[in-house]
Specification:
Chain lengths: ~290, ~300
């Protein structure tokens, strides 16, 4: 009985330590990336960390926390940390109504406005692009939209993400059936080549339309590397952020979107209560934000 | 409407003998509901004449449309719970759908889409009225929503050739529906619908809202109701439930109808969460579909 009690005291003491370290890691992650694990999500944070802790042969979350802070190779560790904590779920042509609004009215509006001024250039940014499906989808949509006029335009599409591992997948441009589950046969035949094992690789001329780079939305120095854009996609990324970091990222986006440009968030996301700068435009089946001219 | 416009409608539609008439039950009910002396007992008596209608009312009372937690077992309790105005609203709605649904099925357009647009608009207008605190207008908004585009049915039925040209103008030449109609008929579907509703002895507030659902600011007596329909119409389009109208996207806060609704709202400084309202519309559209199914007796 007594041993039992002291044992349980012991564990709870240890748990407490572990719990504190977990919270410290949570805060560290939040400060570094804006990804926020609330009290109810701490469990999931722990689950996501444990494979990495085991791989490093460390014995506790606390040890991992110190490794992260003080180990000479700890700088690199944040890279692994973000790789294992981010949710990278995505697919080609995710949320058709939004992309239809992009390819239709949004592009028409931009093409008209730019054509008038004689600047035939378009800059599109996919922030939190994961393994590249989103920016490549945008490249295909633009290509199909401009058709034979494509060569008159200077098109720049950038995919950016905090996770290096998704970026290297994106650069290779090889995808499985799951990534292509919303993609028509016609598109696959036209813009991909079989790459074995039921995989497909995006053709080079599409691949060359998109450039990938590291971006941490929460890091000011990193944010300074992104240029003004006509359209920013940041879909299903801010949902992992808390209100304060959402607000600051959105304010930054507002700053770098060109007047008359557009901002897409995920289909169930909203800027209500986060920013009053953008105009909300209702499109068939999609809500899109616009920065006034 | 000007004399001249009414003349144009009568020339095109007035002579037609087969012009749909509202079932006597619905017509009687409108009269009854307008009469301050009438009671629920009078309604119950009226509904005994039509058991099919009575059973539909009961079904609707028990559906997600109202979302009551308790089962409503019989007509008298349904009448008590719903009240005179709601019952009138349901009977009108069911009658309208019964009256037009099967005949519209023979026409040259996608009638399912037409009814989903109409019922969706009805339900959204009602939700919007509730959200803005316009409790007086909730039911009227539903009824007007259901019939706001009924003039299009009349055109497609009695002006078949011109209707085809109208569709082409909208789809290929970027005309608005009203402009296309006016260029061929001299009047638009909103005016024709209002004229029909007048024939059915609908109250003036409703016929005027139908007439101005595309220009609510021009309405004198029904600005608010016309605006509710106008805005609900746009939300319908934003949910991809449009019917023979082009929609290139819209900032609703720039819309005159929206401004009228916001200015007349009793909720001062109320910051309307348009995003959340739009997300919630999926549920309203399901209710609208249910209302159609029950009305037609295809809910099983
Ligand atoms: C669920 S994916 C969304 C992918 C794509 N935008 C879509 O909607 O299909 C979220 C992506 O956001 C990235 N991300 C999370 N926090 C980030 C940050 N602070 N800076 C940049 N990217 C971040 C993740 O690495 C992940 O790849
Ligand atoms: Fe209309
Ligand atoms: Fe309509």
């Amino acid at each position: 009985m007594i041993t039992n009690l002291s044992w349980s005291k012991q564990t709870s003491f240890e748990n407490n330590h572990e719990c504190n370290s977990l919270i410290k890691i949570r805060d560290f992650v939040y400060n570094q990336s804006g990804l926020y694990f609330s009290e109810t999500k701490l469990d999931s944070l722990q689950k996501k960390l444990s494979p990495r802790i085991e791989a490093l042969n460390l014995n506790s979350i606390e040890e991992y926390y110190y490794y992260l802070l003080y180990d000479p190779s700890g700088k690199n560790e944040t890279k692994f940390l973000f790789d294992s904590l981010t949710n990278n779920e995505t697919s080609f042509f995710r949320d058709a109504p939004q992309l239809k609004a992009f390819q239709g009215q949004v592009l028409s509006d931009l093409i008209d406005a730019k054509g008038e001024k004689g600047h035939k250039s378009l800059r599109i940014l996919s922030c939190g692009c994961s393994t590249g499906e989103e920016p490549y989808s945008l490249a295909i949509l633009i290509l199909e939209r401009l058709g034979k006029h494509l060569h008159e335009w200077h098109i720049e599409i950038k995919g950016a993400d905090i996770s290096h591992s998704v970026l290297s997948t994106a650069r290779k441009g090889i995808y499985n059936q799951y990534s292509l589950r919303n993609t028509s046969e016609r598109i696959i035949n036209q813009y991909f080549t079989p790459a074995g094992n039921d995989n497909f690789q995006i053709k080079d001329y599409i691949r060359n339309m998109v450039h990938f780079s590291y971006l941490n939305l929460r890091d000011e120095a990193s944010m300074r590397t992104i240029y003004p854009a006509d359209v920013i996609f940041c879909r299903n990324v801010l949902i992992y952020f808390n209100e304060t970091s959402k607000k600051s990222v959105i304010a930054k986006f507002y700053e770098i979107i060109n007047p008359g440009g557009y901002f897409f968030v995920g289909p169930s996301e909203s800027l209500f209560g986060l920013s009053r700068s953008f105009k909300l435009i209702l499109f068939p089946g999609a809500l899109v934000y616009k920065k006034e001219v | 409407m000007t004399e001249n416009e009414i003349q144009k409608i009568e020339n095109s539609f007035g002579q037609i003998e087969t012009l749909p008439t509202l079932p006597t039950l619905a017509a009687d009910l409108i009269m009854l509901a307008e009469n301050p002396q009438s009671s629920l007992g009078d309604i119950a008596l009226l509904l005994q004449r039509d058991p099919a209608m009575a059973s539909k009312i009961l079904k609707i009372a028990n559906s997600a449309f109202y979302g009551y937690s308790k089962q409503v077992n019989n007509l008298p309790s349904a009448l008590l719970i719903l009240g005179l105005r709601e019952v009138k609203n349901i009977v009108l709605g069911v009658s309208i759908i019964n009256l037009f649904y099967s005949s519209s099925a023979k026409l040259s357009f996608d009638h399912k889409k037409f009814w989903m647009h109409s019922a969706g608009c009805a339900q959204i207008a009602r939700a919007l009225a509730f959200k803005m605190g316009f409790f007086e207008q909730e039911l009227e908004a539903f009824t007007v929503g259901l019939i706001h585009d009924i003039g299009k049915i009349a055109i497609s039925q009695f002006q078949k050739d011109k209707f085809k040209t109208i569709i082409q103008l909208i789809q290929n030449d970027n005309y608005t529906s009203c402009d296309a109609e006016t260029s061929l008929l001299g009047v638009n579907h909103a005016q024709i619908g209002s004229w029909l509703a007048e024939k059915w002895l609908f109250p003036r507030s409703l016929t005027e809202a139908i007439e101005y659902h595309h220009q609510p600011y021009e309405s004198v007596n029904s600005q608010k109701l016309a605006s509710l329909i106008h805005i609900a119409d746009i939300f319908c389009k934003a949910k991809d439930l449009s019917f023979l109208e082009k929609f290139d996207g819209e900032d609703i806060t720039d819309n005159q109808g929206w401004k009228i609704i916001q200015e007349t709202s009793l909720r001062k400084n109320f910051h309307f969460d348009i995003e959340r309202f739009t997300f919630g519309l999926d549920e309203e559209i399901i209710k609208a579909q249910q209302f159609i199914n029950i009305s037609r007796g295809t809910d099983i």
